[in-house]
């Protein structure tokens, strides 16, 4: 590629979701000309694509918002404890308008290739419409869960009905009234969409491979008092959230201080009941060690298993719906009436372990034991998480090395934001950073601020390139693994470790050390003159 006809910028950002938008705002504030290239037709990323019925955030809306602008938080009012997709998308659109971001975003354009040209120390980027862009810096704000995955079920190409993926939902919605529908997959997306489709459809078949733990969201409208209280204390709470492991607010009186094993059984049952009734993911924070001590975890796991049996009328169905892994080690789901949906006469649960799908015909899903006639199939089968969106582009660093080659044994990053051999490339909330294990908006803000400070540092001192040193990267990858191995997370197969994708190297990808600790570490790296990076 030559850069004769290329457009030149100071920075190229890929993706106009929550990360790309704040990155653009920050780059402008620090006097840089940036362009954002976005595959969708509008802003929003995840919240642009995931429009399936029941789509909601599993982080409380008062926590799930940017903190960088006090004016922004004052003028936006969330309506519910857990915001619906359309409300979050409206918020993101408001941010885009308020900060006049759209004029530097090109929509409906997908980055296909990016190459670091060593002679000029610049990134050359190609898109699917044939346009070319050149800039010294490239920032991937491509999201962790943005590359949907659909299993290659035999016969799917013969199916004559409608096929949907929750992560690519039609903008004008889908009416399932009087239709026979299959949902494949019972992760967060499946668990949200299933009760909504069941309420509409004539018949619903749910194809489940692994049952999941889901906690009642207990969603409700926010009161004026709750909204005002957060508004008043916004800066203080944001500061304490950023220093906490999860980035989520909990009043000090509610912060766990004990092991589950340090309290008598009766008290433990009462504690779990209390947090179960409060709703959301609070149950997982009842004690300090639920994700590090198998015996402690077992107490919460058994509590949740009993709850499923209480909610599901038929014992054989309840058995199939009951997970047998450590609760919380796969992403915990939140629901509104998920388990109860299986008490409905129009809903059938098919466990594909005992009754595998053998083929799909023009109008049915055929398993070993039955034929399920359907008019529509909804795949809620998840994503090639964290690495997928990056590897979907042909990214080449020094010496033409591809990212796919560099990551053939799994993602290798320094701090989850930089990759040895790929100078001047930053990843926002990438593998090796807290990202999906913490409040992702705070993770994004921390990365964006850090990157912007780093670019200022380089400009002030006349550096042209920054690159993670292989040694620092190796040490970070080892640290990320070590911290993960000290928890129960790696004991369960999940998209956190890539085990949902055939052939993907199994490595626990996010950093489980907590947002606060990670933020302090990154600040220390910067303070020490970007220790572990080579600047030239
Ligand atoms: O995807 P998933 P998701 N045959 O990978 C099954 C976030 N999110 O879109 O577990 C049959 O979790 C697969 O089975 P198994 C959140 O972080 C948040 O639901 O691999 N089944 C699993 O049941 C979440 O964790 C929100 O055995 C097959 C399901 O498909 C992440 O996104 C809402 C199959 C995929 O579950 C991903 O959630 C939605 C096959 N061949 C998403 N292949 C909220 O904020 C896969 N499966 C609430």
TrEMBL record:
UniProt keyword list: FAD, Flavoprotein, Monooxygenase, NADP, Oxidoreductase
Gene3D superfamilies (alphabetical): FAD/NAD(P)-binding domain (3.50.50.60)
Keyword RNA-binding set for record: no
EC number: 1.14.13.22
Keyword Transport in record: no
One family name in Pfam for this protein: Pyr_redox_3
Cofactor(s) required, per the database record: FAD
One of the record's GO molecular function terms: cyclohexanone monooxygenase activity
Domain of life: Bacteria
InterPro entries attached to this UniProt entry: FAD-binding_Monooxygenases, FAD/NAD-bd_sf
Disordered: region residues: 238-262
Similarity comment text for this entry: Belongs to the FAD-binding monooxygenase family.
Protein name: Cyclohexanone monooxygenase
Source organism of this protein record: Sphingopyxis granuli
Lineage, broadest ranks: Bacteria, Pseudomonadati, Pseudomonadota, Alphaproteobacteria, Sphingomonadales
Gene of this entry: pamO2
